[in-house]
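LAB NOTEBOOK - FOLDING QUEUE
OPERATOR: T.R.
BATCH SIZE: 2
PURPOSE: Compare the predicted structure-token outputs for two unrelated chains run back to back under identical settings.
PRIORITY: normal
REVIEWER: second-year student, initials M.K.

ITEM 1
FIELD SEQUENCE / FIELD STRUCTURE:
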Amino acid sequence: MKPSAEAPPSSRTFGPVAPRDTDATPFTTILEDLIERVTGAFAAIIVDSQGEAVDYAGRGEPFELRVSAAHMQIVLSSIQRFGVLGDPRWLVLRGPRKSVAASALPDGYVLVLLLRPRAAFTLSTRALKVCIRALAEEAGWRNLDQRDGAKQRSWFEVAVETDRRGRPTCVGAKRVPVEVLGTVMGLSVRERGFRVRTAEGSELTLVREPRQRWYADEPV
């Protein structure tokens, strides 16, 4: 059997799945889904404006995850106070052993993602869009498009059925038939994109990322 290129990170590298020291919240499953969507991610944490962890998921000791996220909140706040660069929305730091990505959220909250060293600069902003939108719905944040740290068009998770060549044939829970109009250029080597027209006549872009995760640039 050919080994999977998307094998999960080893516990020896990133630590075990430690027992939770707090009860799970509605945010927990959202963070777990983000980790599953992002290749190389092993933990995700939300902190408030004071650096206190709201919730977390993934590998590693809970205390260490909280400290890592609190430091990123301090870094973003420091950049904001510096003033010259404006309000920081998105920050990626790559280290020789691990990397970290932080996205500013409404009301001073910060979403922190811990990753393999080489995974930070290939981080899926589509997965972040899906995660941040879910967090906003749970938290009741408004005007998210004006404050979203992942600067890219809106993306939505979508179920896609394909033919033998991997080209979309149906989308969404209602299995809406689509016609492929062309392919999307400029994607990474492990992504594939299509411009399609639905049976209702609307057009949208579909992108398949690693782990067979599909995204649409319009809600389906």
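ITEM 2
FIELD SEQUENCE / FIELD STRUCTURE:
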Amino acid sequence: MPPGETASVPADRHAPKNRKPDQRPVIDVQDLHVAINGKIILHGVGISAWAQKVSAVIGPSGSGKSTLLRALNRTLELTTGAKILRGEVRFKGEALYGQGVDAQLVRKRICMVHQKPVAFPMSIAENVLFGIRFHRLWNGRSAETIIETYLERAGLWNEVKDRVREPASRLSAGQLQRLCIARALANDPEVLLMDEPCSALDPLSTAKIEELILALKEQLPIVIVTHNLAQARRVSDRSLFICEGRSLEEGPTGRVFTEPRDERVRDFITGRIG
């Protein structure tokens, strides 16, 4: 970056109130090719994330789903040997990998919730406040207000309000995952990415996460990677099916599951292959 130039991220979401709603997808990926240590993982994949919608990425294990998700918020470049060969990733119409774009701010605005919920070695309250402290997002709010606000948004407040100063490690797996979501939401993201968020959870905890996803989509776009086809049908508005790093089918979830155009997608959805 040239001396004196300020790092930037794509245009901030706080647009003028009289501006017409943007009809473009919030995230738009076209013809994305990715290699890791010389092996091509994604071959021309595309996906869009829209306001107030959940986009599911489904397909067999090892098909590149998580690699695609990491490309959406520039955590891919933290993987040794990972390289985007060609293609385009746009966030609110601007190149996510453009010159001068601050990757750290991108990861704040496009937050990731990982497969395995991991609590930071601190209290429940301090987990929620972690991103607030790092990014200095207080905005005149007290710590107590922030803790309650985001635990409430994650559907966890009523379960932990009397023990927020206790170590987060004492929470159950399902509670931990909701804490991770609260921690992500406290960063005030504009897109939420979720990588198999329910794979380690029991059915009851999974149901709570799914209810949370449906509630949160009204506030920000969500892209979820899931191996659970029934879950994709329950929570997503659009689905992308990829196999061996290639896009086979993309469109409204109802259509993809009931009238798949690709025979391989049909076989996978009907259970003929898995």
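REVIEWER COMMENT (ITEM 2): The chain has one domain: 27-270.
FOLLOW-UP: none requested
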